[in-house]
Amino acid sequence: MTQAVSFHSATRIAIPDASATWPVDEVLALFELPFNDLMYRAQQVHRAHFPDGDVELATLLSIKTGGCEEDCGYCPQAARYDTGVEAKKLLEIDEVLTAAREAKASGATRFCMGAAWRSPKERDMDKVEAMVRGVKEIGLETCATLGMLEEGQADRLKDAGLDYYNHNLDTAPEFYDNVISTREYQDRLDTLGRVRNAGLKVCCGGIVGMGESRQQRAGLIAQLANLNPYPESVPVNHLVQVEGTPLHGLDPLDPLEFVRTIAVARITMPQARVRLSAGRRQMGEAVQAMCFLAGANSIFYGDKLLTTGNPEAEDDRALLAKLGLKTHASTLTEAQKERCGG
Ligand code: SAM
Ligand code: DTB
Ligand code: SF4
Q1: CB burial class (10 A; 0-12, 13-18, 19+) of residue 249?
Q2: Which residues of the chain have pLDDT under 70?
Q3: Looking at CB atoms within 10 Å, which of 36, 135, 146, 181 has the fewest?
Q4: What is the C-alpha separation between 297 and 331, in angstroms, rounded?
């Protein structure tokens, strides 16, 4: 490793400096470590930065489903693919707040609102801002993923009380054109810049298992880790293959390669919440347990992602209990709870 390191005094582990850059070949070298060495390093970094070892529960709600004009090759909500997802209108504010209250009552600390838009229309902004305000008042951290943002939209969301904006790079720049043609990689980076400038926290990750090479997985992680600063929250999605989408029918990724991706994200972005995101239902308990060991510390919690299935909340609680993992809600102080989930 050539980047600057600091030394964590309690554990004597070399921790990469938060501003260090990660050349793709160094990220690839992590992927190529013997599995146990990689897991050991990831655990060391994880314990040094998250001594509580808690797992964040984030509930996801699709506030605007289907009918999207974009052509993302993985996505069941793109209107041009015949996936059986019906286009619906933007939900009413009350429907969103009811779901948020239920999420809070089940133990979630973060509530993510997703819309199948290329970008939000001006006419929808007032309603979305009211949703953000309402969810914040319920006492949850707020996150939205609405597509590309134009000048000023990120500031409006920030003013409404938004904590995080999710906008993914999805894959490495050199693989991107195999997956999406209706927007450029640079458009995504521009939106992330606006999100950062508005003072919002960045939630940015990608999808693995889309037919990319290991080098390209390393390329995605390097892109994320080299954002300055790197995202506070990094969703690592396993492609959920949906019939009717162009990416349906690919050979599935080796589950151990998915675990490696989580570990490499943990090592290169030591302070980020690494989110074990889409694809958990297909993964089974043992692979999920390895992902937690590799440093994942956030999951989507609730029986649905946006349009596809997620494990039942009850099963997730049972899995966390079986592994002896605490939830973030249980490690928050009273003062942090007052401030909406810290
Ligand atoms: N429409 C907005 C956009 O694309 O920016 C926000 C919602 S979009 C569904 C959010 C993210 O979900 C995508 O960037 C992608 O990373 C992830 N996603 C969508 N479909 C997926 C699938 N089938 N498997 C895994 N992740 C998926
Ligand atoms: C993210 O990175 N993953 C979530 C969230 N951000 C919005 C979405 C996963 C969607 C999986 C496919 C679906 O359910 O439609
Ligand atoms: Fe639309 Fe987002 Fe799906 Fe792409 S990922 S098709 S932008 S909903």
Answers
A1: exposed
A2: 1-20, 332-342
A3: 36
A4: 13
